[in-house]
Amino acid sequence: MKGLILFILMIYTVDSLAQTADKPNYDESKVPEYTLPELLKTNDGVKVNNKQVWEAIRRPELIREFEDNIYGQMPQGFDRITYSFINDNKSAMEGKARLKEVLIKVFNKDQKLEINLILFIPNRAKRPSPAFLLINNRGKENTDPTRINKSDFWPAELLIDSGYAIAAFNVDELAPDQKDTYMNGVLRLYPEQLAANNGMRAIGAWAWGASRVMDYLLTDPDIDGKQIAVVGHSRGGKASLWAAAEDQRFALCITNCSGNTGAALARRQFGERIKTINTKFPYWFSPNYKKFNDQEALLPVDQHMLISMIAPRPVYATNASDDLWADPKGTYLSLQNAEPAYVLYGIKPNLPANSPAINEPIVNASLAYHIREGKHDLTLFDWINFIKFANYNFKKRAF
Ligand code: GTR
């Protein structure tokens, strides 16, 4: 009898321990002690104190670490890319904008992928226009080219009135956001990726899509190819960071509420963790990333290094006050720990020691940040500040 009670007690204890391990931590005092991997030291132990060594050795090393351990490889080659206009309306949005609906087709190994790009260009502003490109993870309703449906997720009129072109594509065309169908997109062009432990998965495919849109935008005489910002919210914000890190043609990056495996430090283990994200979304990152389930300290990188790889190009990260799942403090720390990469370029981002108060954005900076009141979302408040940030960085500094 005694043995049986002990046995039941043991099962109960093991079970409740397991539950605690999987519960998100929202208590600052329970954040473990951690040391971030060193940003400015090469894998051979050489100190990086200028941008030459950074660009020739350290940055490529980091790209490789992120590819091999987290997002997977980023295939560069393809057989052919074509652009055709589905619609070209010089007087859209009541005459305020030119609307181009562009069908981008990418061919590789007898396979074809189609991306439907929606692009509005301001009529009343100087051409070529600077542009924002949204990696849209929230459905086509948010980017309606007819403007019958309007949404704060992609407030096209606001951008046009501010003198910016505004573009979007839908992530599902690159990799459906589903565990059983994600391979029916870019991965049909690169089937070998599916077999590789460091192979591309959905987030990598979305970032790859942003680069194909960039390929098109560089051919469009109405767009200033040197002033294109990539924007993403949440899972799209993980992709916008990865796109800007991999593709240096993006002049500016915005990552809204991107949290775990986005802008937030993994080692803090606050809110969403690697194991949680890998369990719920096993098709977002490479198979190798599963090795770090409950093993954040073993990662050779942390997310501040992802931001560093974008330097000297400006990055804006955000959070929302009700969205502790995305670890606001860990996001701000990530930006701060990326600063040394900017310093190599003579830029001192000078983020304040403490994160700013709610609704007090830091926008006139290379590393910008805000925490907005409210829930996990991409809102008008966010966009208004992204525009200020772009105004500051595009108009006041030459790249
Ligand atoms: C959540 C996920 C987050 C974030 C979010 C979103 O379920 O845990 O990492 O990506 O979805 O995309 O809105």
UniProtKB/TrEMBL annotation:
<keyword id="KW-0732">Signal</keyword>
<feature type="domain" description="4-O-methyl-glucuronoyl methylesterase-like">
    <location>
        <begin position="105"/>
        <end position="344"/>
    </location>
</feature>
<dbReference type="InterPro" id="IPR029058">
    <property type="entry name" value="AB_hydrolase_fold"/>
</dbReference>
<dbReference type="GO" id="GO:0052689">
    <property type="term" value="F:carboxylic ester hydrolase activity"/>
</dbReference>
<protein>
    <submittedName>
        <fullName>Putative acetyl xylan esterase</fullName>
    </submittedName>
</protein>
<keyword id="KW-0378">Hydrolase</keyword>
<dbReference type="InterPro" id="IPR054579">
    <property type="entry name" value="GCE-like_dom"/>
</dbReference>
<keyword id="KW-0719">Serine esterase</keyword>
<dbReference type="Pfam" id="PF22244">
    <property type="entry name" value="GCE_fung"/>
</dbReference>
